[in-house]
Amino acid sequence: GAVVSQHPSRVICKSGTSVKIECRSLDFQATTMFWYRQFPKKSLMLMATSNEGSKATYEQGVEKDKFLINHASLTLSTLTVTSAHPEDSSFYICSARAWTTDTQYFGPGTRLTVL
Amino acid sequence: AQTVTQSQPEMSVQEAETVTLSCTYDTSESNYYLFWYKQPPSRQMILVIRQEAYKQQNATENRFSVNFQKAAKSFSLKISDSQLGDTAMYFCAFMKNRNNDMRFGAGTRLTVKP
After folding, report:
1. Are A102 and B104 an interchain contact pair (Cβ–Cβ within 8 Å)?
2. Per residue in A8-24, pLDDT tens?
3. Does A106 touch chain B if contact means CB atoms closer than 8 Å?
C-alpha cells in the first residue's frame, strides 16, 4: 500500500514552454501533497504544500506564478512549470499524506530538462 | 524555524559491519516526528524508520535502529550487518506535527563496500 506515482518520469522541453507534472496517490486519499525540488547531490527543498480543494502554500522564494500547483482531487496534484527556462531544470519530487497518518509517501520523481 | 543537520557528507562501511549516521536538529517544540529516508540511485525516497518524540523507546526496523536523545536533540541511525543494497543517500527529516511539512538534512552518502 501507500503508493505514489508521478508522470512523466522524464521530460525535455524547449525554453519558454510549459510543462505539467502529475502526482497521484494510487491506494489512498491524499489530503495533503507536497512538491520538492532536488538539485544534483543535494537535499530536497520544499517548494509548496497543497491541501485538497484549497490554494497551495508556497515556500519563501518560490514563484507561485511560475510553479502552478493544483490539488483538485484527493488522489491527484499537478505542478505546472510555466514558461520554463534552463535554470528550472531539476529533479522534482512529490509526496502525499493521508489525514490518518503522519508519514509522507514519495513519488519516484520527474527529471525536467529545459533546453 | 526548525533545522536539521547531518554533519557527515559521506561515509563508507564494509559489508556485514555496522555503521552509524548522525543527525541533530533544532526545535522549541516538545512533540514532533523524526524520520530517516533512504534515496538509492533510482532516486526513489524510501522510508527507513520513524520516531515520535513523545516515545522514549528507540524505534527499530530489522537491521535499522535509532538512538534518539531528546535532550541533546540527536537522532542517529544505526545500520547493522550492512548490505550492498544499503548503498544510498540517507536523509534525516523533522516534522513539527502531523499536519506540517517535513524538513530535510543535507544528507549522508553511504557506500557499502564488498
Report:
1. no
2. 999 999 999 999 999 99
3. yes
